[in-house]
Specification:
By secondary structure, the chain is α/β, with parallel strands linked by helices. It contains six helices and twelve strands. It starts with a helix and ends with a helix.
Amino acid sequence: MRRRIAAALLCAALCLSACGGDAINEGTGTDTIPDPGRDFAITAGQGLNLEARAWGTGSTYVVLAHMRPADMTSWFDFARLLADEGYTAIAFNFRGYGKSDGDQGELRVADDVRSVVNAAVADNATKIFVIGASMGGTGAVAAAASDLIAGTVTLSAPAVFEELDVARFSHLVVGPLLLIAADEDGEAANDALAIASGKPDAELLVLPGAQHGTNLFAEHGPEITARILDFLAAN
C-alpha cells in the first residue's frame, strides 16, 4: 500500500514538472526545494568536482544520472522515494551542469557515472545500482562493465551518444540490465532493443506514448516505479 501511495505522489509531482518543461541547468537552487538532501562530494577525472545530493542511509546505493537539458533536480522526487524504501539515493550533475565543474561541450557521461560509483564505494556502499535517463542511461550502460555495479536501469537511453556506442559493448555489462522506453519517442525503443541485443538476459519494457527520460514518469509513474523497485529488490 505504501509503495502504491508513494508512486502516485511521485507521478503527480513529475506531471507538474513535465508540464513546466525540463529543469534549467543554470543552478540547482536546492535552498528552495523541500527536502533537498545533503551534499555528497564527488571528484571526477581531471580533478573536476561534481555537484551531488544524497538521501537515505541504506547500505545499498542508487546512483541517478540525468538527461539533457535537465539537471539532477529531475531525479529528486524519485530519490526521496528510494530513501523511503531504505536505499541511499545519489543524484548528481554531469560536468558543466548546475554547479559541477567543467564544460557541457566536453561531456564524459561514462566517466562521470564511474566517478559517482567510486564515491559510493568510498562511502561504504555494500551494493550499487545505476539508473540513467537519456544520455545518463548511455553513460550508465557504459559504466556497467564493472562488478562494482549490481544492476543498471535506463530510461530512453540512446544507443549512441557523443560517439559513445554502447550497443557495441553492452555484452560487457556485468549485472542485470533493465531498459525502458516509449514506443513513439523517436528511436528510443529501437535503441533500447539494440542495446538489449548484446545482452540476451536484458529486460526490455516498451511503453505507449512519446515521453522521454524522466518525463516517462508523468505518464507511467506507478508502472515504472513498481518495475524499478522490483528490479532493485530482486538483484
